[in-house]
Write a structure and sequence with these properties.
By secondary structure, the protein is mainly α. It has a domain of about 60 residues. It is built from 6 helices and no strands. About 0% of the residues are buried.
Length: about 140
């Protein structure tokens, strides 16, 4: 099977992916060879606040921390989708052919976001006053 001229267009992309992968591998391997691997008492001491660590660092956290993190990412991504719409809002009548199409489209999108937020509030995920085990 002979490659077509269309297939050759992907060659720079494949070369860039290969170069990025090789660069990452070379940097990890080089740091392993160059770096020193001696764990001394000074290296193992607490360095953030100067307080000695007490207990196990593998302690359990409430699942609410993870839920809030996922919700933050979810709503942050939703806001990222609103930014291009806001930038081209005045050009939307020329793009879509309708004056209000882009407006109603964004209202539907915001409706989905509002339904998601309503569900989160009704489920009590953002209410930290009591800890429920059913989450």
């Amino acid at each position: 099977m002979n490659p077509t001229p269309y297939d050759w267009q992907y060659l720079p992309l494949l070369m860039q992916i290969l170069a990025a992968f090789l660069l990452g591998v070379v940097m990890v391997v080089a740091s392993w060879f160059v770096g020193r691997h001696r764990n001394t008492k000074v290296k193992l001491d607490a360095y953030e606040c100067g307080i000695e660590a007490v207990g196990d660092a593998q302690g359990r956290f409430s699942v609410r921390f993870y839920l809030v993190a996922v919700l933050f990412i979810l709503f942050d991504v939703e806001m990222v989708f609103m930014m291009p719409w806001a930038v081209i809002y005045r050009q939307l009548p020329h793009i879509t052919g309708s004056r209000l199409f882009g407006f109603w489209e964004m209202l539907v999108y915001l409706g989905f976001v509002a339904v998601g937020l309503y569900y989160i509030v009704r489920k009590g995920i953002l209410n930290w006053s009591h800890d429920r085990a059913d989450l």
